[in-house]
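Final report, Chapter 2: Outcomes

The project's central promise was a pipeline that accepts a single protein chain and returns its three-dimensional structure in a standardized token representation, suitable for archiving and comparison. That pipeline is now operational. To close this chapter, we reproduce one record exactly as it appears in the project archive, with the input sequence first and the structure output second.
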Amino acid sequence: MSQNKNYMIQLDGLRFFAVSGVAWFHWAPKDLQFVIPWNIGVQLFFVISGFLITGILLKSKKAVENSVALNLVTMGIWTVAIASASWYFFEKPINNLKKRFPYF
């Protein structure tokens, strides 16, 4: 088996615990499920995925740092964020704002 130099065998152990947690939740008797929290397997999968995706993004950051597409996506994200915040704060009646923010 040829292994990639970026392959981390330690993640296989974490994957085992994640699969075991999900399997335990689905197939263990209800009176024994107190041993492992109900969603630990899914949370561990999310942590592993986030770790791997972050590593990939950091490695490819230099390649796309000056990319026009990246700049357009960033502008789009900021536009949506500002528009959403503006709608949330200014579309609501002033009375609701006074209830939410009594220091006004």
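Archive annotation: The CA atoms of residues 21 and 36 lie 7 Å apart.
This record, like all others produced under the grant, will remain available to the consortium after the project formally closes.
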